[in-house]
Amino acid sequence: MARVSPIRTAEIVAVGSELLTPHRSDTNSLWLTGRLNDLGIDVRLKSIVGDDAADLESVLRLALARAELIITTGGLGPTVDDLTRDVAARVTGRTLELNEGVLEKIRSRFARRGLPMPETNVRQAMVPSGAALLPNPVGTAPGLWIETDERVLLLLPGPPRELFPLFDAQVQPRLAERNGAQRLRRRVLRLTGLSESAADERAQPVYSGFLSETIPIQTTILATPGQIELHLTAAGAGPEALDAALDSGVRRLADALRDHLISEDGRTLEQVVGELLEARAMRIAVAESCTGGIALGRLTDVPGSSAWVIGGIVAYDNAVKIAELGVSPALIEAHGAVSEPVGQAMAAGVRERLGADVGVAITGIAGPTGGTPAKPVGTVVIALDGPGRVVRTFAFAGDRSMVRVQSVAAALNMVRIALTSS
Amino acid sequence: MARVSPIRTAEIVAVGSELLTPHRSDTNSLWLTGRLNDLGIDVRLKSIVGDDAADLESVLRLALARAELIITTGGLGPTVDDLTRDVAARVTGRTLELNEGVLEKIRSRFARRGLPMPETNVRQAMVPSGAALLPNPVGTAPGLWIETDERVLLLLPGPPRELFPLFDAQVQPRLAERNGAQRLRRRVLRLTGLSESAADERAQPVYSGFLSETIPIQTTILATPGQIELHLTAAGAGPEALDAALDSGVRRLADALRDHLISEDGRTLEQVVGELLEARAMRIAVAESCTGGIALGRLTDVPGSSAWVIGGIVAYDNAVKIAELGVSPALIEAHGAVSEPVGQAMAAGVRERLGADVGVAITGIAGPTGGTPAKPVGTVVIALDGPGRVVRTFAFAGDRSMVRVQSVAAALNMVRIALTSS
């Protein structure tokens, strides 16, 4: 067997007009990406093309000029819509030939179900010359492995129930043999309580050196409301060396981002809070005003959260703050419902009333109305009563839903910090 | 203004290395496809590119050779990873220029939050020469509209909360003006409380005739946990005729699906419940056990919900059911916490304690643990106290999060039905 170089980069091309409607997305490529990453192969680009020969041809020609492995999914069916075989033969300069062995298998599949084979299914037995056949245990269309100019073009069926077993049985072993010990490893750092640019400003001095180290580490930064993710990836031979390099990178970033770092292994903020509470045999109760139950909803998303969540009071109306949380009407009168004294009274109230170890309160102005010059929309007070007393006033940007999401993240992070330092 | 031809085809390019991992998919393009279809524009191809200038450049060059409208999402952030502006300028032969107006807006956004602008954010004020600015009401990066050789290259931010309002306020009107009367109209019927196949069984006799009518109507059925959507679309030149055809189709479907129909215009269940409560000058309180605050979180998502939500009690622990909702320990002892008598006591308790007109209670077993042969995971009791008394026990399928979502939908739908018939 000729010496071949390992494959480092792949592109995925999903074929099918239904994937260009508002209601269907290509999810095969997520699964394939996981499998390819495990083999040390990075997915560099994905395309979604309709059942259109010209579009598919231009996408495949460009992909063949760029990536070492191109995987198409879909378009191998029996109808005239199914163009992947024809276009793949054209871009690799092959002719399509009827493969009697494949035809026989398709015929006998139909025969086993007592059916004649429709004439259109002959299309599925057409094979680009020189292609290796990858038997499909579940459907009629085999996968096709075409090598051309040091590149591999791989045609796979679209239905997940055919694609997944075919990949694992036929494609994974071939790629693993070719790539040897080559692997790609990933770490996800979750951060909260700072903006994307602030996170970047603190992380950049650390990660800017990552690419020039013995084992280079790629860093990507990712922002969603109330949360930032840093993705670190390293590729190469020897999983242990990659893990060690990533561990060291994670440690250095963690030092630079302390206080904002939720987890180094992708755990969510609510999971981390739950683990901290459970380790201390403590239980939490939450009083929510502007967030209206979202903080409690997020905490109780964690399976087994009944061990460390007692419950809470959603005090949307001031009357509930007074009657159920024991906040004095005079305090609300003097400072307003969105104020640090009222926040502290709510936190203490929910802790005492529900018999919790930790009480948290969120009161603020989520908008779109209710803001004043002194307390504009986005003003949110978060108070903690339990492991020490903390109260802070935040000024969040964004619309109603964004203010609510950021408030919940900030409240859970205050609990995390208080528990970590206690 | 020069006469310009309508736009019929578009390509969407999603930019961001995180979209090439196994864990994240591009969902913006689904939303955008819906909006573009409404304007009679067909999406022909989608690409997903990492934060890599060479790859983005080759994809954009090919797209500009093929489609009339190219929309990029993402890569407009403040970090060195964010390359879309630079590459777009290169492929259209423009220079990047600092726009003082944009810079000033970014600076004042930071100033309003009492923060200095990080130096990196200057990147977001760089604009390809000749590009039209599309103000971003939510974030720092404006959208950019670049016309080149009869084609439009449109750079939009990646975060959905910035992308969606920016598209609707700035892009939709420009495209609508350009495309004239050619339209694709859509109606969305929201249903709840029945399975996808049950919905289809009832709707199919009605919609089966839709395609052979003078103005054919396409019907698509779409299921998410706790909710079914029927999308009706009609395409053609006269918006009025399309609307009339769709109205007639909606009326006939609504008759077949009564009781399960939440809205005919895309309003959410919580909006409909809020409107019903507000019209009756009633206020609601919710007692949640297994749903842990999600029902209240959903109700308070609606702007202005303080007019009709008082608040609620999240009684995750039985002690809270007893102390805060006045459920008798003997009742829990006799029937269990997940039982119709306890559900009714919780609903009455939250209504009385919080002084509401309508009390709702949800108590159940969301899993993954806690199920018994008599009350397996998915058993959920929902009770209503207020406009009559109702209690029902449901058996929901699916995992923890699915059981919780379905429970909330069922509870809100019980309120809707009770208020509609009262």
Structure, explained:
The structure is a homodimer of 422-residue chains. Chain A is an alpha/beta fold and 422 residues long. Chain A folds into three domains: 9-179, Molybdenum Cofactor Biosythetic Enzyme, Chain A; 182-263, Alpha-Beta Plaits; 269-421, Maf protein, CATH 3.90.950. The first copy, chain A, contains 13 helices and 17 strands. Chain A has helices at residues 28-38, 53-66, 84-91, 100-112, 160-179, 196-207, 239-257, 269-279, 294-299, 318-325, 329-335, 340-354, 400-421; strands spanning 9-15, 42-49, 69-73, 96-98, 126-128, 132-134, 143-148, 151-156, 182-191, 218-224, 227-237, 261-263, 284-288, 309-315, 358-364, 379-386, 388-395. In chain A, strands 2-1-3-8-7-6 form a six-stranded mixed β-sheet, with helices on both faces. A five-stranded mixed β-sheet of chain A has the order 14-13-15-16-17, with helices on both faces. In chain A, β7 and β8 form a beta hairpin. At the A-B interface, α1, β2, α2, α6 and β10 of A face α1, β2, α2, α9 and β14 of B. β2 (42-49) of chain A pairs antiparallel with β2 (42-49) of chain B, so a sheet runs across the interface.
